[in-house]
Target: L-lactate oxidase
Amino acid sequence: MEYQEVLQNARTCMGPYCKACSVCNGQACKNTIPGPGAKGSGTGFARNYQKWQELRVNLDTIGENRPADTSFDFFGHRLALPVMAAPVGAMQLHYGDKYDDLTYNRLLLAACAKAGIVAFTGDGVDPAVMEGATQAIRAQQGCGVPTVKPWDRETLMQKLDLALTADPMAIAMDIDAAGLPFLRNRMPPAGSKTVAELREVAEYARKPFILKGIMTVRGAEKAVEAGASAIVVSNHGGRVLDQCPATAEVLPAIADAVGDQVMVLVDGGIRTGLDVFKALALGADGVLIGRPFVTMVYGGGEEGVAAYVRKLTDELSDTMAMCGAHSLKEINREMLWQG
Model:
Protein backbone atom coordinates (compact mmCIF):
# COMPACT_ATOMS: atom_id res chain seq x y z
CA MET A 1 0.00 0.00 0.00
CA GLU A 2 1.08 3.56 -0.66
CA TYR A 3 0.88 6.31 1.97
CA GLN A 4 -1.97 8.26 0.33
CA GLU A 5 -4.00 5.07 -0.08
CA VAL A 6 -3.64 4.36 3.63
CA LEU A 7 -4.86 7.87 4.46
CA GLN A 8 -7.91 7.41 2.24
CA ASN A 9 -8.74 4.09 3.91
CA ALA A 10 -8.35 5.61 7.37
CA ARG A 11 -10.99 8.22 6.61
CA THR A 12 -13.56 5.46 6.18
CA CYS A 13 -13.11 4.02 9.67
CA MET A 14 -11.83 6.77 11.99
CA GLY A 15 -13.86 9.29 13.88
CA PRO A 16 -15.98 11.03 14.74
CA TYR A 17 -13.20 13.18 16.24
CA CYS A 18 -10.10 12.31 14.20
CA LYS A 19 -10.47 13.20 10.50
CA ALA A 20 -7.30 11.42 9.25
CA CYS A 21 -6.22 14.73 7.72
CA SER A 22 -3.66 14.88 4.93
CA VAL A 23 -1.57 16.98 7.31
CA CYS A 24 -1.98 16.00 10.97
CA ASN A 25 -1.61 19.49 12.41
CA GLY A 26 -4.21 19.79 15.15
CA GLN A 27 -6.54 22.13 13.25
CA ALA A 28 -9.57 19.96 12.41
CA CYS A 29 -9.64 18.30 15.85
CA LYS A 30 -8.63 21.46 17.68
CA ASN A 31 -10.01 21.02 21.20
CA THR A 32 -11.77 17.65 20.99
CA ILE A 33 -11.20 15.58 24.11
CA PRO A 34 -12.36 12.80 23.84
CA GLY A 35 -10.56 12.78 20.53
CA PRO A 36 -7.01 13.56 19.45
CA GLY A 37 -7.15 17.31 20.04
CA ALA A 38 -5.47 19.50 22.64
CA LYS A 39 -6.72 20.79 25.98
CA GLY A 40 -8.37 24.16 26.58
CA SER A 41 -7.97 26.49 23.62
CA GLY A 42 -6.72 23.54 21.58
CA THR A 43 -3.62 25.41 20.40
CA GLY A 44 -0.99 23.16 22.03
CA PHE A 45 -1.15 20.43 19.39
CA ALA A 46 -1.11 22.98 16.55
CA ARG A 47 1.81 24.90 18.06
CA ASN A 48 3.87 21.70 18.35
CA TYR A 49 3.38 21.09 14.64
CA GLN A 50 3.87 24.68 13.52
CA LYS A 51 7.21 25.24 15.27
CA TRP A 52 8.84 22.39 13.32
CA GLN A 53 7.56 24.00 10.10
CA GLU A 54 9.13 27.34 10.98
CA LEU A 55 12.62 25.82 11.12
CA ARG A 56 14.63 25.88 7.89
CA VAL A 57 17.55 23.66 6.88
CA ASN A 58 20.80 24.60 5.15
CA LEU A 59 21.48 23.06 1.73
CA ASP A 60 25.10 21.90 1.30
CA THR A 61 25.97 19.26 -1.29
CA ILE A 62 29.71 19.93 -1.56
CA GLY A 63 31.19 16.85 0.04
CA GLU A 64 31.67 13.13 -0.24
CA ASN A 65 28.97 11.36 -2.25
CA ARG A 66 27.91 8.33 -0.22
CA PRO A 67 24.61 7.06 1.23
CA ALA A 68 23.22 8.45 4.46
CA ASP A 69 23.12 6.00 7.36
CA THR A 70 19.84 6.48 9.26
CA SER A 71 20.39 3.64 11.76
CA PHE A 72 20.03 4.35 15.48
CA ASP A 73 21.38 2.62 18.60
CA PHE A 74 18.56 2.27 21.13
CA PHE A 75 20.09 0.80 24.29
CA GLY A 76 22.09 -1.75 22.36
CA HIS A 77 19.38 -2.47 19.79
CA ARG A 78 20.01 -1.28 16.24
CA LEU A 79 16.97 0.44 14.74
CA ALA A 80 16.57 1.39 11.10
CA LEU A 81 15.55 4.94 12.06
CA PRO A 82 15.79 7.24 15.10
CA VAL A 83 11.99 7.02 15.19
CA MET A 84 9.68 5.20 17.58
CA ALA A 85 5.90 4.93 17.69
CA ALA A 86 4.64 6.81 20.74
CA PRO A 87 2.29 5.25 23.31
CA VAL A 88 -1.37 5.88 22.55
CA GLY A 89 -4.30 4.60 24.57
CA ALA A 90 -8.11 4.61 24.78
CA MET A 91 -8.29 3.94 21.04
CA GLN A 92 -12.04 3.48 20.74
CA LEU A 93 -12.74 6.55 22.88
CA HIS A 94 -10.49 8.85 20.85
CA TYR A 95 -10.13 7.36 17.36
CA GLY A 96 -13.00 5.04 16.50
CA ASP A 97 -14.41 1.58 17.09
CA LYS A 98 -12.28 -0.39 14.63
CA TYR A 99 -9.54 -1.22 17.16
CA ASP A 100 -9.43 -1.55 20.92
CA ASP A 101 -6.16 -0.97 22.79
CA LEU A 102 -5.17 -4.64 22.79
CA THR A 103 -5.61 -5.11 19.04
CA TYR A 104 -3.97 -1.79 18.23
CA ASN A 105 -0.88 -2.55 20.33
CA ARG A 106 -0.57 -6.04 18.84
CA LEU A 107 -0.72 -4.72 15.27
CA LEU A 108 1.56 -1.75 15.94
CA LEU A 109 4.27 -3.73 17.74
CA ALA A 110 4.42 -6.38 15.03
CA ALA A 111 4.46 -3.82 12.22
CA CYS A 112 7.16 -1.68 13.83
CA ALA A 113 9.35 -4.70 14.53
CA LYS A 114 9.08 -5.76 10.88
CA ALA A 115 9.94 -2.24 9.75
CA GLY A 116 13.06 -2.17 11.93
CA ILE A 117 11.87 0.28 14.56
CA VAL A 118 10.17 -0.05 17.95
CA ALA A 119 6.81 0.91 19.42
CA PHE A 120 5.92 2.16 22.88
CA THR A 121 2.64 0.78 24.24
CA GLY A 122 0.10 2.68 26.28
CA ASP A 123 -1.54 2.04 29.62
CA GLY A 124 -5.05 2.48 30.98
CA VAL A 125 -7.40 2.18 33.92
CA ASP A 126 -8.45 -1.25 32.66
CA PRO A 127 -5.75 -3.78 33.73
CA ALA A 128 -6.35 -5.69 30.49
CA VAL A 129 -4.56 -2.92 28.56
CA MET A 130 -1.18 -3.56 30.21
CA GLU A 131 -1.79 -7.30 30.17
CA GLY A 132 -2.41 -7.20 26.42
CA ALA A 133 0.57 -4.92 25.80
CA THR A 134 2.82 -7.28 27.73
CA GLN A 135 1.61 -10.26 25.70
CA ALA A 136 2.19 -8.34 22.46
CA ILE A 137 5.74 -7.33 23.44
CA ARG A 138 6.51 -10.89 24.48
CA ALA A 139 5.29 -12.10 21.08
CA GLN A 140 7.87 -9.78 19.49
CA GLN A 141 10.70 -11.17 21.67
CA GLY A 142 10.81 -8.01 23.77
CA CYS A 143 10.81 -5.54 20.87
CA GLY A 144 8.71 -2.87 22.54
CA VAL A 145 8.60 -0.38 25.39
CA PRO A 146 5.69 -0.64 27.86
CA THR A 147 4.67 2.74 29.24
CA VAL A 148 3.09 2.96 32.68
CA LYS A 149 1.15 5.91 33.99
CA PRO A 150 2.10 7.53 37.32
CA TRP A 151 -0.24 5.37 39.40
CA ASP A 152 -0.05 4.88 43.16
CA ARG A 153 2.93 2.81 44.36
CA GLU A 154 1.12 -0.50 44.69
CA THR A 155 -0.41 -0.33 41.22
CA LEU A 156 2.88 0.81 39.70
CA MET A 157 4.83 -2.11 41.10
CA GLN A 158 2.19 -4.59 39.96
CA LYS A 159 2.31 -3.18 36.43
CA LEU A 160 6.10 -3.18 36.39
CA ASP A 161 6.17 -6.81 37.50
CA LEU A 162 3.83 -7.67 34.64
CA ALA A 163 5.71 -5.61 32.05
CA LEU A 164 9.06 -7.15 32.98
CA THR A 165 7.79 -10.63 32.15
CA ALA A 166 8.03 -9.58 28.47
CA ASP A 167 11.75 -8.71 28.83
CA PRO A 168 11.24 -5.38 27.01
CA MET A 169 13.99 -3.14 25.64
CA ALA A 170 13.16 -0.48 28.23
CA ILE A 171 10.41 0.69 30.58
CA ALA A 172 8.78 4.11 30.25
CA MET A 173 6.50 6.31 32.33
CA ASP A 174 4.54 9.23 30.89
CA ILE A 175 4.85 11.37 34.00
CA ASP A 176 2.86 14.15 32.31
CA ALA A 177 -0.19 11.86 32.27
CA ALA A 178 -0.73 13.11 35.80
CA GLY A 179 -2.64 15.92 34.10
CA LEU A 180 -4.89 13.89 31.83
CA PRO A 181 -8.50 14.99 32.46
CA PHE A 182 -9.95 11.48 32.14
CA LEU A 183 -7.62 10.11 34.86
CA ARG A 184 -8.79 12.53 37.52
CA ASN A 185 -10.69 11.05 40.41
CA ARG A 186 -10.36 7.56 38.94
CA MET A 187 -9.18 4.30 40.43
CA PRO A 188 -6.39 3.41 40.61
CA PRO A 189 -5.23 6.93 41.50
CA ALA A 190 -2.58 8.67 39.39
CA GLY A 191 -0.62 11.85 39.99
CA SER A 192 2.71 13.62 40.23
CA LYS A 193 5.76 11.83 41.61
CA THR A 194 8.75 13.05 43.63
CA VAL A 195 12.34 12.43 42.57
CA ALA A 196 12.63 9.84 45.35
CA GLU A 197 9.49 8.02 44.17
CA LEU A 198 10.75 7.99 40.60
CA ARG A 199 14.18 6.76 41.69
CA GLU A 200 12.49 3.79 43.36
CA VAL A 201 10.65 3.01 40.13
CA ALA A 202 13.84 3.33 38.05
CA GLU A 203 15.70 0.96 40.35
CA TYR A 204 12.82 -1.50 40.48
CA ALA A 205 12.47 -1.56 36.67
CA ARG A 206 15.94 -3.10 36.17
CA LYS A 207 15.76 -1.87 32.58
CA PRO A 208 16.61 1.47 30.97
CA PHE A 209 14.00 3.80 32.47
CA ILE A 210 12.49 6.47 30.21
CA LEU A 211 10.63 9.47 31.61
CA LYS A 212 8.23 11.03 29.11
CA GLY A 213 6.80 14.48 29.69
CA ILE A 214 9.84 16.70 30.32
CA MET A 215 9.43 20.36 29.30
CA THR A 216 11.99 22.32 31.35
CA VAL A 217 15.70 22.15 32.07
CA ARG A 218 14.92 21.72 35.77
CA GLY A 219 12.54 18.87 34.97
CA ALA A 220 15.27 17.20 32.91
CA GLU A 221 17.77 17.60 35.74
CA LYS A 222 15.30 16.01 38.16
CA ALA A 223 14.80 13.12 35.75
CA VAL A 224 18.57 12.55 35.70
CA GLU A 225 18.63 12.72 39.49
CA ALA A 226 15.86 10.11 39.58
CA GLY A 227 17.98 7.69 37.56
CA ALA A 228 16.31 7.97 34.15
CA SER A 229 18.32 6.56 31.24
CA ALA A 230 16.35 8.65 28.75
CA ILE A 231 13.83 11.46 28.71
CA VAL A 232 11.16 12.40 26.21
CA VAL A 233 10.68 16.13 25.75
CA SER A 234 6.90 16.10 25.51
CA ASN A 235 3.80 18.08 26.49
CA HIS A 236 1.57 15.05 25.84
CA GLY A 237 0.47 16.45 22.50
CA GLY A 238 -0.95 19.54 24.17
CA ARG A 239 -3.45 17.36 26.02
CA VAL A 240 -2.53 18.01 29.67
CA LEU A 241 -1.84 21.77 29.98
CA ASP A 242 -3.04 24.60 27.77
CA GLN A 243 -0.69 27.39 26.64
CA CYS A 244 2.49 25.29 26.88
CA PRO A 245 5.43 26.09 24.62
CA ALA A 246 6.05 23.71 21.74
CA THR A 247 8.54 20.90 22.26
CA ALA A 248 10.76 22.34 19.50
CA GLU A 249 11.02 25.56 21.52
CA VAL A 250 12.30 23.96 24.71
CA LEU A 251 14.33 21.10 23.21
CA PRO A 252 17.65 22.93 22.57
CA ALA A 253 18.08 24.12 26.16
CA ILE A 254 17.15 20.72 27.57
CA ALA A 255 19.50 18.87 25.20
CA ASP A 256 22.35 21.28 26.06
CA ALA A 257 21.75 20.75 29.79
CA VAL A 258 21.50 16.95 30.02
CA GLY A 259 22.29 15.53 26.58
CA ASP A 260 25.63 14.22 27.77
CA GLN A 261 23.98 12.35 30.66
CA VAL A 262 20.84 10.75 29.19
CA MET A 263 19.34 9.88 25.82
CA VAL A 264 17.14 12.79 24.75
CA LEU A 265 14.02 11.95 22.75
CA VAL A 266 11.28 14.36 21.66
CA ASP A 267 7.71 14.16 20.39
CA GLY A 268 4.90 16.53 19.50
CA GLY A 269 3.95 17.48 15.93
CA ILE A 270 6.76 15.55 14.20
CA ARG A 271 5.33 14.23 10.95
CA THR A 272 8.06 13.80 8.30
CA GLY A 273 11.64 12.68 7.94
CA LEU A 274 12.52 16.35 7.49
CA ASP A 275 10.99 17.06 10.90
CA VAL A 276 13.07 14.20 12.34
CA PHE A 277 16.20 15.80 10.91
CA LYS A 278 15.29 19.14 12.50
CA ALA A 279 14.75 17.49 15.88
CA LEU A 280 18.17 15.84 15.74
CA ALA A 281 19.76 19.12 14.66
CA LEU A 282 18.28 20.77 17.77
CA GLY A 283 19.91 18.16 19.99
CA ALA A 284 17.58 15.17 20.19
CA ASP A 285 18.93 11.64 19.80
CA GLY A 286 15.63 10.33 18.45
CA VAL A 287 11.92 11.06 18.18
CA LEU A 288 8.54 9.59 19.03
CA ILE A 289 5.56 9.97 16.69
CA GLY A 290 2.03 9.26 17.90
CA ARG A 291 -1.10 10.23 15.99
CA PRO A 292 0.18 9.44 12.45
CA PHE A 293 0.92 5.85 13.46
CA VAL A 294 -2.69 5.57 14.65
CA THR A 295 -3.88 6.70 11.22
CA MET A 296 -1.57 4.20 9.52
CA VAL A 297 -2.86 1.29 11.61
CA TYR A 298 -6.51 2.24 11.08
CA GLY A 299 -5.98 2.76 7.37
CA GLY A 300 -3.73 -0.15 6.52
CA GLY A 301 -2.72 -2.25 9.52
CA GLU A 302 0.86 -3.53 9.18
CA GLU A 303 1.02 -2.37 5.56
CA GLY A 304 0.10 1.16 6.63
CA VAL A 305 2.90 1.28 9.18
CA ALA A 306 5.36 -0.08 6.61
CA ALA A 307 4.33 2.63 4.13
CA TYR A 308 4.84 5.37 6.71
CA VAL A 309 8.25 4.08 7.81
CA ARG A 310 9.36 3.95 4.15
CA LYS A 311 8.21 7.55 3.73
CA LEU A 312 10.07 8.69 6.85
CA THR A 313 13.22 6.85 5.78
CA ASP A 314 13.23 8.36 2.30
CA GLU A 315 12.62 11.87 3.65
CA LEU A 316 15.28 11.63 6.36
CA SER A 317 17.96 10.12 4.13
CA ASP A 318 17.25 12.69 1.40
CA THR A 319 17.49 15.60 3.84
CA MET A 320 20.73 14.23 5.29
CA ALA A 321 22.25 13.94 1.81
CA MET A 322 21.19 17.46 0.85
CA CYS A 323 22.58 18.93 4.08
CA GLY A 324 25.89 17.05 4.07
CA ALA A 325 25.27 14.55 6.89
CA HIS A 326 26.26 10.93 6.28
CA SER A 327 25.29 9.66 9.75
CA LEU A 328 22.95 10.76 12.52
CA LYS A 329 25.89 11.94 14.64
CA GLU A 330 26.92 14.38 11.91
CA ILE A 331 23.60 16.23 12.12
CA ASN A 332 24.14 19.44 14.09
CA ARG A 333 22.63 22.84 14.77
CA GLU A 334 24.71 24.51 12.06
CA MET A 335 22.57 22.62 9.53
CA LEU A 336 19.59 24.77 10.56
CA TRP A 337 19.26 28.25 9.10
CA GLN A 338 19.74 30.86 11.81
CA GLY A 339 18.01 33.73 10.04
Remarks:
- Residues 89 and 124 are 7 Å apart (CA to CA).
- The longest helix spans residues 291-323.
- The radius of gyration is 19 Å.
